[in-house]
């Protein structure tokens, strides 16, 4: 399984994904699930993937092949005029893979399971963020709900629900997202380090800040320790139930 978070801010995007995959307790692997496409000065995209690894890798491969060999009809990530149209390009790639593989997966007792968080910016358009489903359709983030999660999201959701705001600074939002991962890592063995983290500043139109956070990352170790202390202190400071 996996865990991914994408957050849309007034000042840009924060995107993060773990790297663990597992097909049983004795078959655990590490695969990248954060992908970028950039055309400096024109556009930049970030894609987070969760679900069947063969499905999600096939979607990414189709997107890459279309960049190298554009189809006779339809947009590619390079030619889409808006982020909405670019999200349709990703959705179409999902549908292509589904048409090829869904029946075969079903016949073997498996589901066509895939979900994606897709964000970026094109030209003068503001950054936008989409949650793309296995059917290829999608929804867009808004100031009311400025984040999406896919994969094993339940353990990391409480802090996002309580703290996330679209007017946060990039560094504050990245801290919050990493705390969401820390909670997930503590409670779910199917999510694991390292974490790929990307922060994108509005109008940069290129990828400038990426980080892979491993077991020995000093900031993540400090963050996890201080968060645990803060939670224990907050708990101790709340009056006990009178029974």
What does this entry show, briefly?
The protein is of the alpha+beta class. The protein has five helices and twelve strands. The radius of gyration is 19 Å and the shape is globular.
Tell me what the structure shows.
The chain is α+β, with helices and mostly antiparallel strands. It has one domain: 4-Layer Sandwich (Glutamine Phosphoribosylpyrophosphate, subunit 1, domain 1), CATH 3.60.20. Helices cover 35% and strands 28% of the residues. The protein is built from 5 helices and 12 strands. It has helices spanning 53-68, 83-107, 157-163, 170-187, 218-237; strands at 3-9, 12-18, 20-22, 28-30, 34-39, 43-51, 114-122, 128-132, 138-140, 147-151, 195-201, 209-213. The strands form 3 sheets. The protein has a 5-stranded antiparallel β-sheet, covered by helices on one side. Strands 5-6-7-8-9 form a 5-stranded antiparallel β-sheet, covered by helices on one side. A hairpin with a 5-residue loop joins strand 7 (114-122) and strand 8 (128-132). The longest helix has 25 residues, at 83-107. It is globular and about 70 Å long. The model has no long low-confidence stretch (mean pLDDT 95).
């Amino acid at each position: 399984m996996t865990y991914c978070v994408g957050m849309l801010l007034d000042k840009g995007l924060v995107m993060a994904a773990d790297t663990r995959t597992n097909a049983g307790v004795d078959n655990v692997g590490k695969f990248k699930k954060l992908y970028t496409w950039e055309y400096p000065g024109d556009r930049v995209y970030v894609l987070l993937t969760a679900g069947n690894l063969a499905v999600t890798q096939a979607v990414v491969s189709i997107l890459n092949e279309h960049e190298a060999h554009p189809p006779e009809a339809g947009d590619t990530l390079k030619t889409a005029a808006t982020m909405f149209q670019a999200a349709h390009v990703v959705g179409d790639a999902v549908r292509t893979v589904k048409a090829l593989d869904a029946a075969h997966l079903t016949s073997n007792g498996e589901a066509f399971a895939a979900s994606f968080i897709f964000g970026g910016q094109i030209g003068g358009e503001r950054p936008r963020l989409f949650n793309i489903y296995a059917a290829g359709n999608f929804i867009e983030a808004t100031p009311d709900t400025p984040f999406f999660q896919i994969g094993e999201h339940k353990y990391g959701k409480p802090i996002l629900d309580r703290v996330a705001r679209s007017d946060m600074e990039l560094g504050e939002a990245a801290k919050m997202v990493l705390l969401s991962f820390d909670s997930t890592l503590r409670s779910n063995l199917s999510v694991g380090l390292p974490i790929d983290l990307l922060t994108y500043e509005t109008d940069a139109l290129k990828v400038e800040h990426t980080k892979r956070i491993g077991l020995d990352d000093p900031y993540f170790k400090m963050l996890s320790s201080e968060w645990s202390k803060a939670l224990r202190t907050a708990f101790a400071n709340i009056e006990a139930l009178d029974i």
